[in-house]
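Lecture notes, part 5. Sequence design as translation. It can be helpful to think of inverse folding as translation between two languages: the language of shapes and the language of residues. The source text, in structure tokens, appears below.
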């Protein structure tokens, strides 16, 4: 990517037919299977023979794979390469962290709910300045050509800007989307001179170093309550019965609604942070999961990673910086004097330093530590978007 350009995503709703949707689900299933198999191969090659299998090695095996398992013929070749690249990136990120002394976030096997997209990595012929076959919209902009899936109805509610690079087909909240990533000129927001640390929590959605508590929206909480009631209804009804089927449908509908509301809330919160701050620091979830693992956190984790993804996309477009820092001890370290010990945290909510007596809300203290760590990391970090930092 050139210096003065950035990536912008354009998202359009897709309306696949039943067979097209079935083919899309099948593509998700196969690409996920490939990712998990590739991870398995890397792990066992290392365990059994101490051998390192590279992404390149695995790419070379794709032809043989298609011969042995012909169902993979149903997936476009670039789409099949992409999970291997994803895995390769996950490995590289992991080893970059190891180099910095953090052994966390080893690539994990993907369950179905963590695998919701597949990608065409080239949709534009740069030399000739025209669309390639995958992802090419029809002239009337009513359909998109998706190889091996078909010509899928699409709503282009706004025009594409810039030079299209990739097309990702995403299944989100029960709906399908075409997400084009385009190269566009940078559109930086004027600097504000402000930096912020963000701590995510289970009681509050987020707490900032400015002392702001971002609450989970009320309608979201109500929706979750409703969902629990409906799920209990399903459990009560007789298996195979019509009344149960109806109840299951209601659960799915509520799920979808909550999913959309959460997405909307994440967009708004990220937009606000990006408008107000030049630098936004948050904890690196890959690391924090290892440190503070509990059930509530691992459930919230899906939501947070979605939020941080949205945040870094908006930040990259606006020329802001998002830094993911090692969160270890951020809740035990005194923001004033640096003294770090467990006894500083006298309760879930309160922080009182045993060395200097500094007293503060525990979450605000943690978010200030996160910001502090980002400050260290900023030196020697270049480029926009997410940087992984250990300080
Ligand atoms: Zn202190």
């Amino acid at each position: 990517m050139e210096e003065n350009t950035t990536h912008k995503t354009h998202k359009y709703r897709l309306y696949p037919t039943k067979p097209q949707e079935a083919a899309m689900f099948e593509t998700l299933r196969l690409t996920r299977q490939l990712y998990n198999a590739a991870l398995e191969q890397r792990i066992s090659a290392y365990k059994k023979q101490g051998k390192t299998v590279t992404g390149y090695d695995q790419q070379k095996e794709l032809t043989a794979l298609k011969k042995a398992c012909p169902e993979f013929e149903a997936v476009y070749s670039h789409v099949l390469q992409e999970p291997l690249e994803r895995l390769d990136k996950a490995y590289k990120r992991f080893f970059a962290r190891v180099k910095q002394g953090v052994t966390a976030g080893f690539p994990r096997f993907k369950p179905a709910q963590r695998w919701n997209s597949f990608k065409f990595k080239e949709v534009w012929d740069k030399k000739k300045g025209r669309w390639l076959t995958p992802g090419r919209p029809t002239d009337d902009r009513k359909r998109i050509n998706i190889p091996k899936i078909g010509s899928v109805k699409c709503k282009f509610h706004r025009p594409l800007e810039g030079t299209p690079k990739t097309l990702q087909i995403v299944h989100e909240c029960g709906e399908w989307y075409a997400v084009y990533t385009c190269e566009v000129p940078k559109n930086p927001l004027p600097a504000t001179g402000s930096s912020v640390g963000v701590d995510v929590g289970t009681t509050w959605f987020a707490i900032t170093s400015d002392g702001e508590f971002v609450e989970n929206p009320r309608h979201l909480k109500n929706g979750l309550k409703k969902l629990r009631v409906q799920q209990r209804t399903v459990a009560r009804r007789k298996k195979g019965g019509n009344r149960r089927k109806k109840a299951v449908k209601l659960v799915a509908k509520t799920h979808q609604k909550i999913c959309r509301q959460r997405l909307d809330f994440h967009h708004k919160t990220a937009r606000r942070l990006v408008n107000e701050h030049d630098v936004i620091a948050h904890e690196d979830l890959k690391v924090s999961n290892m440190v503070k693992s509990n059930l509530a956190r691992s459930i919230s984790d899906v939501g947070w990673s979605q939020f941080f993804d949205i945040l870094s996309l908006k930040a990259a477009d606006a020329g802001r910086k998002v830094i993911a820092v090692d969160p270890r001890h951020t809740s035990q370290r005194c923001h004033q004097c640096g003294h770090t010990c467990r006894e500083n945290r006298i309760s879930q909510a309160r922080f009182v330093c045993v060395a200097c007596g500094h007293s503060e809300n525990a979450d605000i203290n943690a978010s200030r530590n996160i910001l502090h760590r980002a400050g260290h990391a900023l030196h020697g970090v270049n480029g926009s978007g997410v940087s992984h930092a250990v300080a």
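The translated text above is only one of many valid answers, since several sequences can fold into similar shapes. The mean pLDDT is 87.
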